[in-house]
Design a protein that fits this description.
Blueprint lengths: L23 E3 L11 E6 L10 E5 L2 E8 L2 E8 L3 E8 L4 E7 L5 E7 L1 H19 L2 E2 L6 H16 L9 E2 L2
Parallel strand pairs: 9-10
Antiparallel strand pairs: 1-5, 2-3, 3-4, 4-5, 6-7, 7-8
Length: 171
């Protein structure tokens, strides 16, 4: 009788060249080659954590850089493996919880500016729409415009304006 165990690579290993499924811990961010450009980078407030974590949203992956005393490591999840994005509201700050299709895979960051956390959630929702084929984006669009269009689509979806059977095209 054999059993398979989900193994997470050693944190000192660089991120694998190919985007893996599930949550991966590594010492480097995923490569920005092959349409995985950085769209957004947020840092948690230092009041909530002496060594604030960072959220990095790329076109194909979402990463959280965990900073600790003398050590930092990166947790990454491909967009295709994200099941749900939850905005966590607290009195002074906000957070984001990214739940994978396999609920054992989760990323969470807290201590973010409320408006920036909502922007990040909308952007990630837009990436999920793009991954599902609901929105059509040209490959040549710049990363700033791409991020803005995805965020707008994610905001529309969260507000219920994007119909399930309609396609959203960036003009």
């Amino acid at each position: 009788m054999s059993s398979s165990v989900l193994s997470i690579p050693d944190r000192k290993q660089p991120y694998p060249a190919q985007i893996q499924s599930g949550k991966v811990e590594s010492s480097t961010l995923p490569s920005q080659k092959g349409y995985n450009r950085e769209l957004l980078k947020l840092k948690a407030h230092w009041i909530t954590d002496i060594f604030p974590d960072e959220l990095v949203v790329q076109e194909k992956t979402i990463s959280i850089i965990r900073n600790q005393f003398l050590v930092s490591f990166i947790e990454t999840m491909p967009v295709r493996d994200i099941g749900r994005v939850v905005y966590i509201d607290t009195p002074f700050f906000a957070g984001i919880q990214i739940i994978g299709k396999n609920t054992a895979h989760q990323l969470q960051i807290k201590g973010l500016n409320k408006r920036l956390a909502m922007d990040a959630r909308e952007l990630i929702e837009g990436l999920l729409l793009e991954e599902a084929g609901t929105i059509d984006m040209p490959d040549w669009i710049g990363s700033k415009d791409h991020g803005a269009a995805l965020q707008r689509a994610g905001k529309d979806m969260l507000n219920g304006l994007l119909m399930q059977n309609k396609h959203y095209r960036h003009e």
